[in-house]
Amino acid sequence: MADSAAPSALPFARAHRARRAHLWLALVLVVVSLISLTIGASNVSFPEVAQKLLTGTDLTRTESVVLFDIRLPRLAMGICVGAALAVSGAVMQGLFRNPLADPGIVGVGAGASLGAITAIVLGSALPVAIADRIGAGLIPIAAFLGAWASVMLLYKVSTRRGQTSVATMLLAGIALGALAAAASGILIYLADDQQLRDLTFWSLGSLSGASWIKLAWSAPLIVGGLIIATYLGAGLNGLALGEATAAHIGFDVQRLKNIAILTVAAATGAAVAVSGGIGFIGIVVPHLLRLATGPDHRMLLINAGLLGASLLICADIIARVVVAPAELPIGIVTAILGAPVFLWILLRSRGVVDM
Amino acid sequence: MLTATDIRVMIGAREVLHGISFTAQPGSVTAIVGPNGSGKSTLLKAMTGDIPFDGTVTLNGENTATMKPWELAAIRAVLPQASRLAFPFSVGEVVGMGLRQGLSGGQTDLVETALARVGLGGFAPRFYQELSGGEQQRAQLARVLVQVWTPCVDGTPRWLFLDEPVASLDIAHQLTVMDIARSYARQGGGVIAVMHDLNLTALYADSVAVIESGHLLAQGAPDAVLTNAVLSRAYGCQLQVNHAPPPHQIFVLPHGARA
Questions:
Q1: Most confident residue range from A67-76, A100-109, A121-130, B206-215
Q2: Distance of CA A219 to CAs A75, A138, A215, Å?
Q3: Number of independent structural domains in chain A
Q4: What is the pLDDT of residues B29-50, one digit of tens each?
Q5: Every domain of chain B and the residues it spans
Q6: Is the minimum CB–CB distance between A3 and chain B shorter than 8 Å?
Q7: A240 in contact with B at a CB cutoff of 8 Å?
Q8: Cα gap A45→A128, rounded to integer Å
Q9: Per the domain annotation, does A224 fall within a domain?
Q10: Which residues of chain B are within 8 Å of residue A249 when distances are taken between CB atoms?
């Protein structure tokens, strides 16, 4: 049971807070983005560049490259990936009616890493002509295909006579995850030292490989998925009452499940493919928002997108700054910062969590 | 009118409903009674489409199997036996989920009215999960009520399907809830309720269906159906149906464990 102190004022205040939060979180995202453009290994300063752009002065070659080819695509990718992970987390939690669900639950992570490992270990076996054409895109493409294939397989296994059982999905996901991990294990066993190193870094996650080309194919999947996801809010609220009741109050529950799973597969599949394994955003962000502004998915999904993007940009700034001019894998930063904050919130508000 | 024809339900390899045909009229409260495991809740779940079944169910003349969820939601609401809520929504938010665009959409003042109706006035801002079992049950009833608030629209009746609506309620609230059901029926709506309490059934039902081992044992007015023979056979124990002094209310007394 939650703290008994003035419980009656809480939920209504939250609803107002949730709506106001759209604005505040958007503002935070803008500020964080500007900071992100300013900070980096090279000492190109954003205010200087902005001033030059406004006054029509030509940029130096370094300034233009650093800003437009390195920092801007990285920022855009950070926003996309952070929003994708947080919104997908919220959607999965709503679908599975469980605050601990995350996109990994539908097999995105296991499939993506199997794809990535396959590309890293067996990529050199590709004919040179093909390998040259795909180049650095090989790992993300393989990861996306792996993620998509595993979600579709899991979805198929859990669907009987047009009805998808989320309980089956949860359990079958564990089985398929183990299978994917075993297949990955075989490839890891075959890998040489350099490949193992590549693999480790991929699995820790990073935005450092951001480029306009990667964005060009991942952003439409992510943005499209997120836009569709924001329309699922009312249905996910209904689902909180159980599948049967959600149907009785007028939702097509099977269609809701189809859309939720496909959008999450597209958005997180693309996000994981371009950034590797970035943990914690998908669980921490929706949970934080639920505590602060309530569980109404119609507002939660939008706020999760904004906060997820901001948090990932912050983590990326930290990742780039602490060991400059090198940088930390971002997955380490999100976990080091995310885990204690999450624990602290859990212990503080145990009442609400236990319910 | 609600018509269920030859309803068969398999659970696993076992047939639990053996071809039940059942009707309920708008303007009346129809109670479904029977012992534990007789299939009365299963019958209700088949009629609301929660479980797969063979047979047909028509509501106001239309086959429910071919209706879209939102079309069904516009004419009938369902109160489940137990509801677990996944996230900490407020009572007002839960009740408000009964309001959908195009149904009773937008009439947010209905939430407070419905809550007051079930004896939960002022509960809207509270956390649903902090309510007692009985209060949660009544909050769910309020959600069901706002969904089909007007019992009869342009001559088309709307329906309440209630699965043990008074199961966890004290005696005063049992009466409150049954009064709501009766008044919904009196205003032209249809009410179908799975009931355990035979005396409450006798007091409120206009029609009673007795289910036993997956068969419909009897259906009709309480006077005709609630008899020593039918009840003793259905429940497998000695029951004595009596009549109180005027206005001759029926009441059922248990006499012994064996029939």
A1: B206-215
A2: 12, 17, 5
A3: 1
A4: 999 999 999 999 999 999 999 9
A5: 2-256
A6: no
A7: yes
A8: 41
A9: yes
A10: 73, 77, 97-98, 100, 143, 147
